[in-house]
Amino acid sequence: MMWKTKNIYNEYFAFRLKPEERFSKGIPDWNKFDRFADTMLVRVSWGLLYVAIYVLCISVFDLPGTHWWMYFLLPIHFLMGPVHGAIVNWSGHKYGYANFDNNDHSKNSLMLDVLMLGELFQNNHHKLPNRPNFAVKWYEFDPTYPIVKLLHLTRIIKLRPA
């Protein structure tokens, strides 16, 4: 699944596939920045930045609560994006409950959703993809929505009516 997603991303990135207008309308095109950000130099630089932060916190500043074994957490940081994507796309279509019949087997997985910061409201998201708050029922809570509202109130972003 992750390999297939990577291949689809590459097709869009190379402009061999074009997204539907509803996904691209009003979105800025930063082609030069995207090409720069996709280079191996940038990827390695991010990895080195993570390593530098670990070295500074653990070895140089010897911050309270840090220990040498924490270096073993670096691979988790390096793989966090793909692992998060796999959990969201696998769990969000396998486990949980559905508020809507979307004919796509998407589900809301409340048990893991806190760890995924609202991303496991897949069923709600598939029904209402433009809604900034993925929670729909009274017992659902999208932890990133208050942050989105704060960014809107401070005029950093502008929410559009869904």
Give your account of this protein's structure.
The protein is mostly helical and 162 residues long. It has a domain at 82-161. 52% of the residues lie in helices and 0% in strands. It has eight helices and no strands. The longest helix has 21 residues, at 40-60. It is globular. It starts with a helix and ends in a 9-residue tail after the last helix.
Topology summary:
Layout: H1 2-13, H2 21-24, H3 31-37, H4 40-60, H5 74-91, H6 110-116, H7 122-127, H8 145-153
Write a concise synopsis of the structure shown.
With 162 residues, the chain is mostly helical. 52% of the residues lie in helices and 0% in strands.
SSE class:
mainly alpha
Q: How many strands in all?
A: 0
Specify the overall morphology.
globular
The number of helices is: 8
Integer average pLDDT: 86
Succession of helices and strands: HHHHHHHH
Radius of gyration: 19 Å
Strand content: under 5%
Largest sheet: number of strands, sense, barrel closure: none
- The low-confidence parts are none
Q: What is the percent of helical residues?
A: 40-55%
User: How far is the N terminus from the C terminus?
Assistant: 30 Å
Family: Belongs to the fatty acid desaturase type 2 family.
Keywords: Fatty acid biosynthesis, Fatty acid metabolism, Iron, Lipid biosynthesis, Lipid metabolism, Membrane, Oxidoreductase, Transmembrane, Transmembrane helix
Subcellular location: Membrane
Membrane topology: Multi-pass membrane protein
